[in-house]
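A quick aside before the break. I want you to see a complete sequence-to-structure record at least once, exactly as it would be stored in a machine-readable document. Don't worry about memorizing anything.
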Amino acid sequence: MKLIIAIIQPEKLESVKEELYRAEVNLITVSEVMGHGRQKGVAEIYRGVKEMGNLLRKIRLEIAVNEDFVEPTVKAIVRGSKTGETGDGKIFILDLKECVRIRTEERGPVAIG
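That is the input. The structure line, written in tokens, reads:
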């Protein structure tokens, strides 16, 4: 089991979700976050408003998957978010020690779904 964390541009969320659904990855958690990478201090236009400074709006996706879905999930995120420009984002893949479905108390890969 793996936990995939992706940081993407806000305007790419819909295209990433579409790609994930095509890859049959339906269980995602989405958070609005702020941060910066290499584009630190560069002006960015977000929803028509120019922003300067250290922290830029980003979207954080968290997706728990079983081993067979790791590559399809990563490829879907890349397809949906890649522009080829600095600031496209990052994908982190972490080992997931345990997962528990609260409703049924199932554990492990079966709890992910």
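Two observations worth writing down. The chain has one domain: 2-112. The CA atoms of residues 94 and 103 lie 25 Å apart. We'll return to this after the break.
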